[in-house]
Amino acid sequence: VTLLKLYPYPWDALVLDPPAAYRSNMDRDWAREDQALEQPEEDAFFVDHEKYLPRLTSSKLERALEDVDILVIMIRHVACKQCKVVDETFAAAAKTIADAKKGSR
C-alpha cells in the first residue's frame, strides 16, 4: 500500500507506535523521500492562543461535552494553506466567546 500525501510536508512517522502485528509490514521508502523538503517550523498557533483555544484530546472530549449544546472543534494541518487562512478568524471568534463567558460570570 502506498499512501499519497496531500501536503508537501515530511512525515516523521506514519504512526508513533505501530502495533506489533504491523511493525514488520511498515517501512519507509527512503528512495522516494523528497530530500528537497525543508523541515517545518514549529507550529506555535495553539501555544499563542492557548488561553481560549484549549487542545482537545480524546481523554478530554467527554468533559468538554458536559453542559454545552454545541462544541466547535478546529481541526487543522500545519502545512495546509487553506487552514492558515482561517486560523486568526477562528482564534478571534474563540477569544470573543471566552471573553463573553468571563463577563457573564
What is the secondary structure topology, with strand pairs?
Blueprint: H1 20-23, H2 45-48, H3 58-64, H4 81-103
Detailed description of the structure:
- The chain is mainly alpha-helical and 105 residues long.
- It is built from four helices and no strands.
- The longest helix is centred in the C-terminal third of the chain and has 23 residues.
- The chain is extended, with a radius of gyration of 19 Å.
- The model has no long low-confidence stretch (mean pLDDT 79).
Using brief descriptors, characterize the structure shown:
105 residues, mainly alpha
Q: How many helices?
A: 4
Q: How large, in whole angstroms, is the Cα Rg?
A: 19 Å
Beta-strand proportion: under 5%
Which bin fits the share of residues in helices?
Answer: 25-40%
Distance between the termini: 54 Å
Structural class: mainly alpha
The stretches of 5 or more residues where confidence is low (pLDDT under 50) are none
Number of strands: 0
SSE series: HHHH
Overall pLDDT: 79
Q: Which geometry do the CA atoms define? A: extended
Q: How many strands, what sense, and barrel or not for the largest sheet?
A: none
In short:
With 105 residues, this protein is an all-alpha fold. Helix content is 36%, strand content 0%.
